[in-house]
Amino acid sequence: LDLSNCSLHSVPPELAEATAAIVLDLTENPLTTLPNGSFLGFTHLQLLAVPPALECPGGSDAWQEVTVDGSSRRCQGQKNPCNGSTDLAWLCPENSACAPDGPGFIQCLCDNPFHGYKCLREGTFPVLLFGGILGTATISLSLLLWGTQRRKAKTP
Asked: What is the DSSP letter of 151?
């Protein structure tokens, strides 16, 4: 994705839709900062070129090689923060596993069959029980209101 020399003063919000990008060039733009989260979800990004005044997103530890030449800073080879020397596995709750989510970002994915808040729920959502209780309550309340309010309705 070549966005070089596009007179960008900030990272466009539409960039969040390009998470499948492998190469991204932002050089020759008057960018002053890269906001945190600009590259969240960019798990396939292998080469990012930014103006030399900017740092690589996630810092130099998130990339295998960072080089600076006259017109750009090249961030190459996104590292997987989950299998590095910094033990991030403890950040994820029990019944989940660490997964990369862009340069310098991780996400915790629930192991199967766990789901929900902190992966504490096991199995699937009880659709029949929920639907049965909701349906019964709705019908009961409707009949009660129909029966009590029927006499107040005037016929022409």
From this structure: G
**Can you give the pLDDT at residue 154?**
67
Q: What is the pLDDT of residue 109?
A: 93
Helix (H) or strand (E) holding 64: strand 63-68
Q: Residue 62 — φ and ψ, nearest 5°? A: -85, -5
Tokens 């890269």, residue located: 34
How buried is 92 (Cβ within 10 angstroms: 0-12 exposed, 13-18 middle, 19+ buried)? buried
Do residues 101 and 107 touch, judged by C-beta distance below 8 A? yes
Between CA 109 and CA 53, with CA 43 as vertex, the angle to 5 degrees is 130
Instruction: Give the model confidence (pLDDT) of 78-129 as tens digits.
Output: 998 887 655 555 688 899 998 999 998 999 999 998 988 899 998 888 899 9
The pLDDT score that the predictor gives to residue 89 is 52
- At position 147, the amino acid (one-letter code) is G
Domain chopping of the chain, boundaries:
13-78, 87-121, 128-153
